[in-house]
Amino acid sequence: MKNETERTESSGPREAAVIGRSIQINGDLRGEEDLRIEGDVTGTIQLKNNSLTIGKDGRIKADVYAKAVYVDGLIEGDIYGSERVSIRKNARVTGNVISPRVSLEEGARFKGAIDMDSEAVEAALGKVQPQAKPAVASAPPLSAKPAAAVSTVKS
Amino acid sequence: MVAPLGAATARAQFERPSTLNAPLFRSLLERIDKKQRIVVLDLGAVHAGTIATFVSYRCRLEFADLAEGLEKIQAAKFPALLDELVAGLLPPPGAEPTDIVLAWDLLNYLERPALTALMAGIAERLRPGALVHALIVYSDSRMPTHPAAFVPLEDQQLQDLSADRGPERPAPRYSPEDLSRCMPAFKIERGRLLSNGMQEFLFRL
């Protein structure tokens, strides 16, 4: 793997390891440095204290755990970002995003769910003990309003 | 020179405002208890504005991007196949029931059997008392071939981001009675005619 300099949104220049276009990895990928993927990775990716960039040629079939995740390519799997997840305009994401800060550029394709609720994010990232099942209230968290008849008043 | 009335009317039809004031959507946001977690299902595609609107709530946002599967739904002729397609198009149900559904323009592109199957499938995943906010073509007899891509703005108005929606086709113009028949699990809580000729509805499960 070669190194390249990358400027992330949250910090200055950093050296990031690169998985090139011709590389295919099948299995668990863990590390303690920033990583950019332009190749194929299937399995799981864990960079809990570092950032992961999925480049425009990157193709990921994996659940991803990182401090910050930047997506330009294709990912099928859940994305856990303890700080932030940024989905850029060329990205194609199928799966769920769990992070306190999520940004998305118009043009990105996304099918799944985005969870930004801080308690749910902390539970998902293992900072607190996750409940066996999320607490489900019997009443909806919506205040009741008196029902009005169907109107045709123009607004 | 005074323009003929017919030309003015025609121009009014095609020079629709780029933003849409949707009071029932605004009232829906005001009713959310910010201390409680909610699950929102958007039947449309993901947009930055939707994320920005719900970021201040304790929220799980699900996106179905239903427009991609509309042709398959319309081609299905058998109820069992429709049910299967609907299940495949909606995001896998999570452990939590859904509280709010955003159905902006997409229901206009479903014929009655498909609309019935979709809303029955959605009703199964909702919490009792959940709300559906829908935009239904009401005044116009025709509509573009492709659905609009509405996105909420900072001031909670809705903006259509779609660029080219294709040639026009007949609009179903579902009446409240039609919708009640196709969505027997839901009750119309409120309805309101908007400036773009669509009717805005809040349905309650």
Kindly describe this structure.
- The complex is a heterodimer of chains A (155) and B (205).
- Chain A is mainly beta and 155 residues long.
- Chain A contains 1 helix and 12 strands.
- In chain A, strand 1 and strand 2 form a beta hairpin.
- The N terminus of chain A is likely disordered.
- In chain B, the strands form 3 sheets. A 6-stranded mixed β-sheet of chain B has the order 3-2-4-5-11-10.
- The N terminus of chain B is likely disordered.
- Chain B is an alpha/beta fold and 205 residues long.
- In chain B, helix 5 crosses helix 6.
- The longest helix of chain B is centred in the middle third of the chain and has 13 residues.
- Classes of the chains: A mainly beta (155), B alpha/beta (205).
- At the A-B interface, strand 11, strand 12 and helix 1 of A face helix 2, helix 3, strand 3, strand 5 and strand 10 of B.
- Strand 12 of chain A pairs antiparallel with strand 3 of chain B, so a sheet runs across the interface.
Question: What's the topology here?
Answer:
The complex is a heterodimer of chains A (155) and B (205).
Chain A: E1 3-7, E2 13-19, E3 24-30, E4 35-37, E5 40-54, E6 59-71, E7 74-76, E8 79-87, E9 92-94, E10 97-98, E11 102-104, E12 109-115, H1 118-124
Parallel strand pairs in A: 2-4, 3-5, 4-5, 5-6, 6-7, 6-8, 7-9, 8-10, 8-11, 9-12, 10-12
Antiparallel strand pairs in A: 1-2
Chain B: H1 5-14, E1 19-20, H2 23-30, E2 38-42, H3 48-54, E3 59-63, H4 70-75, H5 79-89, E4 98-104, H6 112-124, E5 126-137, E6 142-144, E7 150-152, E8 158-160, E9 168-170, H7 176-182, E10 187-193, E11 198-204
Helix pairs in contact in B: 5-6
